[in-house]
């Protein structure tokens, strides 16, 4: 077992320990968010320079459409298979349900519907520490400083970590590497939003925990213990 696979196995065996290790420091020391965000802010020009970067803006504007296109592709393959009585690219009923529900539940319902429109945490670019009108609000603290599409938690970060669901379908010998690649991808998407002043570091981390947690739960409910043949038949 490679180091990457061993690390992934440890995360699956001890999810609460890993979750606590990631979240507790951010809850106890909220200044971590301010310190990280400050690295990307230009106090002289009073801007986040990354917001002017075409590459960063491309990620912000276009990346979500790639994720939705991927989900649409899964849906088309599954429906075509149902109509023709075949399984295309391994996308049977259970696999399609897993991939689509992991997108709908984590990034969709929990992050974008329940949290972003109700938590009220202002975005970094709008707080006084970075020349905005609002006060800094730590993670897990409700606020009335933002009405909708707020900072907590990160919608882009949530979408960026959704490919973990795809990685879980990779054959076991390469699964650890696939998961690692999907985590790097999600981390890079989150980095872009942090650098642009759109989200705090904790927003991205909480989105990662939510999406990965719901994805693992759905994987256990829908796919664990079923071999490839049974997946194709379902």
Automatic annotation (TrEMBL):
Gene3D superfamilies: Phosphatidic acid phosphatase type 2/haloperoxidase (1.20.144.10). The keyword Membrane applies. Keywords: Membrane, Transmembrane, Transmembrane helix. The chain crosses the membrane at residues 20-41, 62-80, 95-115, 176-194, 200-218. SUPFAM superfamilies: Acid phosphatase/Vanadium-dependent haloperoxidase. InterPro entries: PAP2/HPO, PAP2/HPO_sf. Residues 96-219 form the Phosphatidic acid phosphatase type 2/haloperoxidase domain. The keyword Isomerase does not apply. It comes from the Bacteria. This is Undecaprenyl pyrophosphate phosphatase. It comes from Magnetospirillum gryphiswaldense (strain DSM 6361 / JCM 21280 / NBRC 15271 / MSR-1). The lineage of its organism: Bacteria, Pseudomonadati, Pseudomonadota, Alphaproteobacteria, Rhodospirillales.
């Amino acid at each position: 077992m490679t180091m990457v696979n061993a690390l992934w196995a440890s995360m699956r065996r001890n999810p609460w320990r890993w979750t606590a290790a990631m979240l507790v420091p951010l809850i106890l020391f909220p200044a971590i968010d301010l310190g990280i965000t400050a690295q990307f802010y230009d106090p002289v020009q009073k801007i986040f320079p990354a917001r002017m970067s075409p590459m960063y803006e491309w990620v912000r504007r276009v990346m979500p459409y790639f994720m939705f296109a991927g989900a649409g592709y899964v849906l088309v393959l599954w429906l075509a298979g149902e109509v023709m009585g075949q399984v295309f690219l391994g996308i049977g009923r259970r696999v399609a349900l897993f991939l689509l529900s992991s997108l709908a539940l984590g990034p969709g319902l929990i992050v974008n519907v329940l949290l972003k429109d109700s938590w009220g945490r202002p975005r970094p670019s709008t707080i006084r520490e970075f020349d905005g009108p609002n006060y800094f609000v730590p993670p897990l603290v409700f606020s009335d400083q933002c009405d909708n599409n707020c900072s907590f938690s990160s919608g882009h970060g949530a979408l960026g970590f959704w490919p973990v669901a795809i990685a879980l379908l990779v054959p076991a010998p390469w699964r650890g590497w696939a998961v690692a690649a999907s985590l790097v991808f999600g981390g890079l998407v989150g980095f872009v939003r942090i650098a642009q002043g759109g989200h705090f570091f904790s927003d991205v981390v909480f989105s990662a925990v939510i999406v990965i947690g719901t994805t693992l739960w759905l994987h256990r409910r829908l796919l664990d213990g079923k071999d490839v043949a049974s997946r194709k038949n379902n």
